Each structure stands twice: as C-alpha cells, then as structure tokens.
Amino acid sequence: MTGWRHTASPSRTFLATAIGACLVAGCGVLPGDSEGSGQTLTVMTFAPEDTKATNMPGMTGMAKAYERWVNSKGGLGGRKLRVLTCNENNTPSGAADCARKAIDEKAVAVVGSYSQHGRAFMAPLEAEGIPFIGGYGVSSEEFQSVLSYPVNGGQPVLLAGAGHQLGRACDQVALVRPDTLAGDSMPILLNAGLKANKMAEASDILAAEDSADLSAQAREALAGTTASAAAGSKDKEKDKAKSCVTAVLGERTETFFDAFRRADSQNKKPQISSVLGSVSQSLVDRTGGRESPFEGAFLTSWYPVAGDPLWEPMRKVIADHAFGDDGVDPADSGTQTTWIAYTVLNEVVKGFKPDETITARKVTRSLNRADAVSTGGLTPDLSWRYQDMRAVAGFPRIVNGRVTFQVVQAGRLVAQEGEQTMDMTATLEQAPRAA
DSSP 3-state assignment of 273? Predict the structure, then answer.
C-alpha cells in the first residue's frame, strides 16, 4: 500500500482532490446523471396563503410536488430543480418581497404563481431579467410585460367567456365583483361577451374584497333579477326571460351565494354563474355535492374538466409526491395552472445543451425565440414570439384565448352540453381597453 501511494501519478492525485472538493462543495450532480451540467436550477412559485381574501395554497404545493417528482427522475435535463415558495399575502408589499427573494436567490424564472399586484412584482423581475412563466392571469401586467409568458388568457378570457355563456341563456345579468383595481376591469370584459350575443350590459355590484357580510350585495343582485323577470314576463316576444347573477369574488364567492340564497325568500332561483377559481369542485363537494347551492351553476374555465384523462400525469405526481397535502387539489385551477407552467419550463430547458449553464436571461431568450411549446393537449401549443401577440387592448400577450364551458350537474363539474371550446380573442379585440 505504501508503495502504491508513492507511485500515484499527478493526474490521479489531481482527480482525487477535485472529486473530494466537489463532494464537500455539493456540486449538484444527480445520481445516475452522466450528461447533465451539474447546475442546480432555482425557480420560485408564489401565491397568497392564510389571508382573509383569495388563497392559493395549491399552487405552491403543486410546485413542491413537481420539484420532488422531477428530481426523482434525474432533474430537468440532468439539472437538479430547486423550488422556492413564497406567501405574497395578497398585498403589494408581499408580492414585491417575493420578487426580491427570487432575485436574491438568483432564480432563473418565477413559475406558476398568483398575485393581483402585478405592478409590485413585475418591475423588480424586469430589472433583473427574470421571466414570469404561467401566472394565474389575475393582473393586467401579466399580459403586458415583455417578460411575462402566460399559459392561459387569465381573467379577461374567463369573463368574456362568461359573458358569452350567459348571453345565450339570460335576458339580464348582474355582476358582483371585488372593489379593487383588478376588479375594475371585470365589467368591461364580461360586457364584451354579452355584447357579442346582443345583450345589454350587466349591472355592476361592488363588494369589499375581504368582507364577511355580503347581504347588501345579495339583496341588490336579487332586486335586479326580480325586476328583470317581471319585465321579461310581460314581453312575450322575448326568447330569453331568465335573470342571471354572476359573482367573481375568489373565496368570498361562497359567502356571497350563501347570502344570496337566504335573501331569495320567494325561491325565484335565478341562474347563477361564476368562473373557475371562484368556484371549484372542492367547493361544490364541501357545500353538499348534489345538494349544493351551486347545483346548476354555469362556469367558465381555461382548461378541460378535471375528470379529463389529459390530467392523469398531474394526478399521478400529486398522488406520489404531494405527501397528503390537502391544499393540492387536482381539480383546482391554481394547481392546474402551476402544473402547466412547470411543463413549459421543462420543455424550455430541453432546448439547452446538457453542459450549458442556464441563466434567467437565457431562459427569456429561449422563450422569445422558441417554436410552439406543447402542454400535452391541456392548452393549445404556446408561443410568445412577436408574431404571436394579439390586438387585445391592454392585454397584447394573451396568446391563449381558449375557454371551456362547464356546468355543475349532479354535484360534478362537467362540460356544458352543446357548448364547444371557444377562443375569446376576437371578442376581446372588439372590447374597449380594460386596463
């Protein structure tokens, strides 16, 4: 043994020293990976949790489940994925703090996140060249910033789609929405869909975002539907004499419809409606399933219904890697959006050479130049090149205007019979500027 030590070549000595140093430093090479660069890719997902308004714990939960799953498979292109999560608290300062944390941790992207405070988080990310991939779509900046890469049409297409859905069934619509900057665009967007069906504009009813008592808004909405029904009954030429109420209040949507049901003492039961994110399968289950007050409600979504086989890969990842996190609901639109956003990230990383170091600016360049990215049929193939931008006032980066129409039937969210998937881009192009 002593003789072997003395005769070891300098190259072997150098190799052993280098390997030892790498092990101590933690170079990040994954087990079984002989081709990856050894780089650890850091990304962030942020969303509000434990607030008095909208909460999206499924988004950060899905991100961590994706991290565990992809690393168990060897990472992204041989690179270990490190997912940071952040609670943005539904406040501008919280959103800005999350963006600064992403910068401090040298994240190459923010992926699958939720915040209505686009001004607060986009400016810091833009300054550092960090792309924002697959946001939930609740802030207008997500469809304006050149560093935002949306995977759905956000609130604009949902509301325009809701207008289309209601315009085919109602003679009058009341909209109950939050009294916030994000909420101010809602009437314009809903009315775009109504106008396309030759409908009058919806009445606009405002509610405090964190209000626990929405009985006044319920009475106002019910008064409008009662008056409309009376007028409709006198006009025998009308094809539609059904009044409709749509509420888009996030987690407060349940609070509103509970108050609305109590206010409807005459049991007139006007058609109710909302959008995915404000109403979900878990909400229907929690409020009675087949006996839920949401039975028969109209809903619009960006994606196929939760029972579609296209979601099976996501369901398996949740089952195997979410470790019993009840917040990660495969039927939740936030969870679904985060899954799609990470699918995009995965596809983008495949375009880099195995030994290439990936940076935020390189990810941005790849997104700007790449051919259409497949999401496995959950959305149209996505591309964010200049020629893919749309002539939608205030929302030029809506590259996916698709909506699906759903209804709560026997306690389940199912595709609405007779309604096909529809692209709302043309409808939005005719709408006034909403942001």
Answer: strand
Nearest to 332 by CA among 64, 51, 55, 70: 55
CB burial of 230-253 (b: ≥16 within 10 Å; e: otherwise) equals: eebeeeeeeebbbbbbbbbbbbbb
The torsion angle over the Cα atoms of residues 63, 183, 117 and 216, rounded to 10 degrees, is -90
Burial (CB count within 10 angstroms: exposed 0-12, middle 13-18, buried 19+), residue 368: middle
CA distance 159 to 153: 10
Q: Are 435 and 183 in contact (CB under 8 A)?
A: no
Residue pLDDT tens, the chain, 435 long: 333 333 444 443 443 444 344 333 333 333 334 455 689 999 999 999 999 888 999 999 999 999 999 999 999 999 999 999 999 999 999 999 999 999 999 999 999 999 999 999 999 999 999 999 999 999 999 999 999 999 999 989 999 999 999 998 999 999 999 998 888 989 999 999 999 999 999 999 999 988 889 999 999 998 866 554 445 444 434 445 589 999 999 889 999 999 998 888 776 778 999 998 899 888 999 999 999 989 999 999 999 999 899 999 999 999 999 987 888 999 999 999 999 999 999 999 999 999 999 999 999 999 998 789 999 999 999 999 998 999 888 899 999 999 999 999 999 999 999 888 999 999 999 888 765
d(CA 424, CA 419): 14
Closest CA to 294 of 275, 305, 279: 279
Beta-bridge mates of residue 224 = none
76: phi then psi, degrees, rounded to nearest 5: -95, 105
Q: Residue with structure tokens 């399933």?
A: 289
| 195 residue type, one letter | K
Residue with tokens 């909403």: 434
**Orientation angle between helical segments 333-349 and 57-72, nearest 10 degrees:** 40
Q: Which of 67, 248, 89 is nearest to 154 (CA)?
A: 248
Residue 32 is which amino acid?
A: G
Contact 157, 302 (CB under 8 A): yes
pTM of the model: 0.83
**Coil, strand or helix at 310:** helix
In terms of Cβ atoms closer than 10 Å to its own Cβ (0-12, 13-18, 19+), residue 173 is buried
Distance of CA 312 to the CA centre of its chain: 18
Question: What Å distances lie between residue 67 and 82, 88, 110, CA to CA?
Answer: 7, 20, 14
